[in-house]
Design a protein that fits this description.
Distance between the termini of chain A: 34 Å
Strand content of chain A: 25-35%
Shape of chain B: globular
Oligomer: heterodimer
Helix content of chain A: 25-40%
Helix content of chain B: 10-25%
Radius of gyration of chain A: 18 Å
CATH superfamily of chain A: P-loop containing nucleotide triphosphate hydrolases
Mean pLDDT of chain B: 85
Number of helices of chain A: 9
CATH class of chain A: Alpha Beta
Low-confidence stretches of chain B: 10-17
Distance between the termini of chain B: 23 Å
Strand order of the largest sheet of chain A: 6-7-8-3-9-10
CATH architecture of chain A: 3-Layer(aba) Sandwich
Largest sheet of chain A: 6 strands, mixed
Largest sheet of chain B: 11 strands, mixed
Order of helices and strands of chain A: EEEHEEHEHHHHEHEHEEH
Number of domains of chain A: 1
Chain lengths: 250, 490
């Protein structure tokens, strides 16, 4: 599904190289976790896949179902099936969450040549998905993420993920800033979306998220490369030994 | 959401690099020589068939104007205006002073049609529910060419006509109220306007009458090198209500043109006036060549108890905007409101805001100003809130936010607050933000294109103000804002 080959990336206006020949494959139906010390390039990887402009790709390719993502703008990548759940979701003042959701869903439908959603169908879908995540309907009328707590923002990311129905979900440090109850709700939301035709890339510094979203594979990232790959037990091993042997003092 | 999508489709369907209303109507016109002397003033007054007292009033204003100097305190830059190089009057030759639409030059009717303003009542009536009807006074250069629905309004006792007609037909009302809010010598441009004003609208709503339809005036500057000196006077008698909308456009020309208007509103006891402007004068090109100088004095007098005046403005045009629609809160318990969206792009300069002068007891006012600056434009909000010592219990809430797009534009906020009573409560909030790359990336990651993302963020930013406009104008204004910002990102 997602194939990354020899990816070399630097920050656009600086000489600083972040990714140094990274290789990674995530198959349909697979949940892959990426763990690694701070500064290893985890968040950069998620931004580069999603198409943020602050980076320059020097070499390599990123393919989603055989399509070269690097030739597409961020919105085209989204329509092709990439979804990034942000570590710090942005606030959009004055734009009701409902309005934003409808705009995003219809923009993607349009890009794929599908008809716009009918309003009653849209409302039904949103309400159904919101109820599952324990999101108050009143919150859907408020401007997106404005004044939301950390947990509410993360739940809103999962709501968008559910409604946009992407083929490749990337979760960037989704556990940061969540208490244990919020973490459980978010993880349940993600688990409910696990499917045969959908891949997940779960980026996290800590093992605790992986107690709730159990991965099929765990990759360890260090200095802009995947340096080790294993099963879910690798996460537990890292929890004990820390990242010291991967370039960060414990 | 549909509105945002519609906005984008509309923008795409027209050639946005061209100012949409920049065409010129070819007409034979009647105009005196360029320049301003007592003879110019006499000429205008004669052409309007004005009574002697009006001519004297104008000449008095002209003599005072000659002793004044142009103000320089605003944050705008422009070369000195040569007042002798302007035409002060221009009227279409054919069908001057028309008695009915049939006498109006068809080229003018065609112009308004192109602008989306039908003037034939039967065209307006087709497919419009009675409650959505709008009566229009169409001012073309120096003359009002037609006022629609006059007869129907007259049945309700509402007077809606050009100011020239009001001077002839309703001198008692004009004498009583003209310059009672903006004195002749209020400021340089107001004094100039008093001497040479040509046309504008007059509205009188009698006691206890709720005006049965929206009233509007559509100003069009067509002739080259011609100034437009609009004069509007609206009086809402006790317990009455009126909603009025003003629209304006001009052809694309290389030289600057002057629009110096005076608008006066008077609300008596328990009356309410809602005045909305969608200002879309030609803004000049990206380098700042051409465009309208919009130097305007707009002021409302809440003369009666519990009266209310609200100004809503959407400003997208003009090379230079210099205007401060204000409220004098004279009556006890009166209320003033100012809602503004000022969009500047290219080389436009805006120095705009409001004044809320609290004179009566328990008077309240609210100011919501949203500035959006893009390109190399510069936008200043200048606002004054003051409470007289007798204005016990006065309250004001001010919120002014600026949104910057790109890094070559500027936004400034200059508030003046003055309270002479300890019981006044004034609140002021101001923010400046930039459409962040992160915000854009977030929207695009969800599938929105770059232009959809800007439209969404900007619409969110101005929502509070757009909500104040009558529904159909809000949609227009939303489109206008998106068009004005086209090409400003990326």
């Amino acid at each position: 599904m997602l194939e990354i080959r020899n990816l070399v990336v630097k920050i656009a206006d600086e000489d600083k190289q972040i990714l140094n020949g990274l290789n990674l494959t995530v198959n349909a139906g697979e949940v892959a976790a990426i763990m690694g010390p701070n500064g290893s390039g985890k968040s950069t990887l998620s931004y580069v896949i999603a198409g943020k402009e602050d980076y320059e790709v020097l070499d390599g390719e990123i393919l989603l179902n055989g399509e070269n993502l690097l030739e597409m703008e961020a919105d085209a990548r989204a329509a092709a099936g990439i979804f990034l759940a942000f570590q710090y979701p942005l606030e959009i003042p004055g734009v009701a969450t409902m309005t934003f959701l409808k705009a995003a869903m219809n923009a993607q439908r349009k890009a794929r040549g599908e008809a716009e959603l009918l309003t009653p169908d849209f409302i039904k879908q949103v309400n159904g998905a919101a109820d599952k995540l324990g999101i108050d309907r009143e919150m859907l009328r408020r401007p997106l993420n404005v004044g939301f707590s950390g947990g509410e923002k993360k739940r809103m990311e999962i709501l968008q993920m559910a409604l946009l129905s992407p083929s490749m979900c990337i979760l960037d440090e989704t556990d940061s800033g969540l208490d244990i109850d919020a973490l459980r709700i978010v993880a349940e939301g993600v688990n409910a979306l696990r499917a045969q035709n959908r891949g997940f890339l779960v980026i996290t510094h800590y093992q605790r998220l992986l107690d709730h979203i159990v991965p099929d594979t765990v990759h360890v990232m260090s200095k802009g490369r995947i340096v080790r790959t294993g099963g879910k037990e690798l996460a537990l091993e890292l929890e004990k030994s820390g990242y010291a042997s991967y370039g960060e003092a414990a | 959401m549909a509105a945002v999508q519609e906005t984008i489709d509309q923008v795409k369907s027209i050639d946005v690099t061209e100012y949409k209303y920049g065409f010129v109507t070819e007409l034979e016109v009647d105009k005196p020589a360029k320049g301003l002397t007592e003879d110019t003033v006499r000429y205008i007054s004669a052409r309007k068939n004005e009574p002697e007292w009006m001519l004297e009033w104008r000449l008095d204003a002209f003599r005072r104007w000659k002793t004044m100097t142009e103000p320089t305190w605003s944050r705008v830059n422009y070369p000195p205006i040569n007042y002798q190089d302007i035409y002060y009057y221009a009227a279409p030759k054919k069908g001057a002073d028309p008695k009915s639409l049939d006498e109006v030059d068809p080229a003018i009717l065609e112009t308004y049609k192109k602008l989306g303003i039908p003037l034939r009542e039967q065209e307006i009536l087709a497919g419009v529910a009675p409650e959505n009807r709008v009566a229009v006074d169409a001012v073309f250069d120096s003359v009002s060419v037609v006022t629609t629905f006059k007869d129907e309004l007259a049945k309700a006792g509402v007077i809606f006509c050009s100011i020239s007609e009001a001077i002839r037909e309703h001198p008692e009302l004009v004498k009583k109220y003209l310059a009672s809010v903006v004195p002749v010598t209020d400021n340089y441009f107001a004094t100039l306007n008093s001497a040479v004003f040509t046309d504008g609208s007059f509205v009188y709503i009698p006691k206890g009458v709720r005006c049965p339809m929206e009233l509007s005036t559509y100003f069009r500057i067509n002739e080259q090198n011609t100034g437009q000196f609009e004069r509007t006077l609206i009086i809402a008698d006790e317990g009455s209500y009126v909603s009025y909308l003003e629209g304006c456009t001009a052809p694309k020309r290389d030289e600057n043109q002057l629009h110096a208007a005076v608008v006066e509103l008077i609300a008596l006891d328990d009356a309410e006036i809602k005045y909305s402007t969608v200002q879309n004068w030609f803004p000049g090109d990206a380098e700042g060549k051409g465009g309208i100088y919009n130097f305007v004095t707009k002021r409302g007098d809440c003369r009666g108890k519990r009266s209310k005046i609200s100004w809503t403005q959407v400003e997208t045009g003009s090379a230079i905007t210099w205007k401060y629609p204000s409220c004098i809160l004279r009556g006890d318990g009166s209320r003033g409101e100012f809602y503004s969206i000022a969009v500047s792009n290219g080389a436009q300069q805006v120095d705009s805001g409001t004044k809320m002068l609290h004179l009566g007891k328990n008077t309240t006012s609210k100011i919501i100003a949203k500035g959006i600056a893009a390109g190399k434009s510069d936008s200043t909000y200048r606002g004054m809130v003051s409470a007289h010592r007798k204005a016990t219990g006065a309250r004001n809430f001010t919120n002014c936010d600026s949104l910057l797009i790109g890094d070559q534009c500027g936004a400034h906020t200059i508030p003046y607050i003055e309270a002479k009573t300890s019981t006044a409560i004034f609140e002021h909030e101001a923010t400046t933000s930039k459409i962040g790359e992160d915000q854009m990336f977030y929207c695009q990651q969800r599938g929105l294109s770059e232009e959809e993302a800007v439209a969404l963020i900007v619409n969110g930013f101005v929502k509070e103000v757009l909500q104040q406009l009558p529904m159909e104008f809000a949609v227009e204004a939303q489109k206008l804002i998106t068009i004005s910002l086209e090409g400003s990102v990326g």
